Each structure stands twice: as structure tokens, then as C-alpha cells.
């Protein structure tokens, strides 16, 4: 067994995450996760790959999803917080996510102006419509909002610690967990607890096929292929040097292409999640690397 040590939801795709002590795991992931997305005026999704300043946007959403607040990580720059009443009744528009067409509900000119000013490029904000019916692929099918693919990204502290050891071999400093934008961070059982300490093994999450956490159940979909977003300093909103991709390329190359770090999961059974919940693996498999 292992325990959940952090839960992070990302209300606006590509923007900063919010750590929570407990939340509800919906069929589309942690409550409100990637339920909003910043797009160009033509409806094409924005990502930190091209717009690293998205990391400076600190969104929070009310429990019922009716209110969204956008704040800047650099308020001294003059970007005050914007409080929005979320609309689900406005006309739908087409939006592009990795070349696939979905629908979005535009959240109005005030949000568009705030984001355009902070990002320095014309932008709009859209919300997933209630009738959103996206199908995600992988070993366990599921759904998600505007996430890159599957609903839930799981990463262990042991995997990050092992990466840091590898990076230190050529003088690179450690990186914060937020570089990898996980939803669920897991760690070993607290000292004194009984159980198999599989979470102390780096990349054990790659081999999980079914797991129960709290009242919820997850099913493995795929490994998390990493991209240039991991090069973005999430506090500064700017792209840094070659790490962690340089080091990952030395030992985490994926046979299907790219480098991998962490695992993606679909929601098999929704339910409440809390920090401190035990992660009970019901089925193991072989790592795909």
C-alpha cells in the first residue's frame, strides 16, 4: 500500500494547479479539473508549450463550479484578481484540442481581456459544456474534460527522487513536483504502518492496472509522455534549461516514442478522495517501457 500525499486540480488547462485536502473524483477526474481552457480567437487551445505565461494564472473555482477567480502570480504587475460568474447557457463554439474538435462555452469579454493582457496575445476562455461526451483512449477507456488525454495523472515521490539522483550525476539541481503537473501524488506508508512498501520503488505507478483510493477506483490507461511543458518554471512562467527532458532521455525512453514519467488513469468508480487515503492496488501489470 501507499498513501496520497497531495491532490492537485487544474481548473484551467495549462494554468497553475490548486492543492486540496479532499475532493470528489468525477468520471472526468478531480472536481473541476481542466473544465476551462484558454484558446486563441480562432478557438485553438493554448498550452505552456507555446505560452509559458499560462503558469502565472492562478485559478480557483467554487465548490459548485458557479464562480471562477483568476489571479496573477505577479500581482505587482497590475493584474488584479478577476471574479467571474460561470455561464453554462451561452452559445457553444468549436474549439480545437490537439487537432480534435470539441465544443466550448465562451466565458465573456472580461475574461478574454484579462487573459489577453496577461499573456500578451489575443485569448478567450471557454468552459466544457454539460453535454461534453469525450471518449479517451488507452488500456481502460474513460472520459475527461480538456485534459491532454486521460482524466487522472498519478506520480510518486520515489520516481521524482530517482530522477533527482540521476540529474545530480551531471550537476543539475532538483526540480519541483509541479513541473510534472500530477493530480495525485503518492508516497510510502507512514513510518510504523504495516503493508508492502511498493511506493518506495521508483516508477511503481507504471505497473498499476487497477487501484482503489478512498471511495474511488482507477484503471490504468497509458504512460505519461513528457513534453516541453516540463521545461517551464511554474513560478516564473518562463522556459528554463534542458532539464528534466535531458536526463529522462537517458533512461526513460518509450518504445512508442518520446520519454515517459508518471502514469495516466481513467476513473472506473467515482468517489471522495482525501490526502492520507491509502492506495490499494488490486491488479498489477508489466511496465510498458
Write up this protein:
10% of the residues lie in helices and 37% in strands. By secondary structure, it is mainly β. The strands form 5 sheets. Strands 1-14-13-19-16-15-21 form a 7-stranded mixed β-barrel. The longest helix has 12 residues, at 157-168. The chain is globular and about 50 Å long. The two termini are 23 Å apart.
Quickly describe the structure.
With 289 residues, the chain is mainly beta. The chain has three helices and 21 strands.
Chart the SSEs and their pairings.
Blueprint: E1 2-9, E2 12-13, E3 18-20, E4 22-26, E5 29-30, E6 36-39, E7 57-61, E8 67-72, E9 82-85, E10 92-97, E11 100-106, H1 109-119, E12 124-127, E13 152-156, H2 157-168, E14 184-187, E15 208-213, E16 216-226, E17 232-233, E18 238-239, H3 245-251, E19 259-269, E20 271-274, E21 278-284
Parallel strand pairs: 2-6, 13-14
Antiparallel strand pairs: 1-3, 1-14, 1-21, 4-5, 4-20, 6-12, 7-8, 8-9, 10-11, 11-12, 13-19, 15-16, 15-21, 16-19, 17-18
On the 0-100 scale, what is the average pLDDT? Answer: 95
- The order of strands across the largest sheet is 1-14-13-19-16-15-21
Q: What is the helix tally?
A: 3
Q: Radius of gyration in whole Å, from Cα?
A: 19 Å
What would the keywords be for this entry?
289 residues, mainly beta, 7-stranded mixed beta barrel, 5-stranded mixed sheet, 10% helix, globular
